[in-house]
Amino acid sequence: EGDSTTSTAPTPATTTQTFSGTIDQLGSAVHSFTVSATGTVTIGLTSVGPLATMALGVGMGAWDGVNCGTSIAQNENARAGSAALTGTATAGNYCVRVYDSGNIPEGWSVSYTVQVAHP
Is omega for the bond preceding 105 within 30 degrees of 0, making it cis? Predict the structure, then answer.
């Protein structure tokens, strides 16, 4: 008598997605991803070139299938090798936007790789 079982929801597996692209001065690029369950989302640049130390802007917004909506969070000074954004997101469709936050010289094209880890 009095036996009870407690069940806890399994922790959703973390998926890591990698996106790459190139942006010019005042440019931006958008990549969409889907969060399958509420959990931690971490976004970070893994590489920036030709100048590895250049800061870019990284933002996360809601994805409606066409547009990257208003930023939920953003970091104007994201650098390769460290997390740009970390937070909790509910299940849904999101986007990461990589953009020139004022550091790309005229005539330059900057390549980047951004990684998104999410449930």
Answer: no
Region for 66 from its dihedrals, namely left if φ exceeds 0, alpha if ψ lies in -120 to 50, beta otherwise: alpha
Residue in this structure with the two tokens 């369950």, named with its chain if needed:
37
Record the tokens describing residue 70, joined without a space.
């208003």
Q: What is the CA radius of gyration of the chain?
A: 17
Q: Are 57 and 2 in contact (CB under 8 A)?
A: no
Q: How confident is the model at residue 1 (pLDDT cuts 50, 70, 90)?
A: low
Amino acid code (one letter) for 107: G
pLDDT tens-digit map of 91-109: 999 999 999 999 999 999 9
pTM to 2 decimals? Answer: 0.89
Contact 56, 103 (CB under 8 A): yes
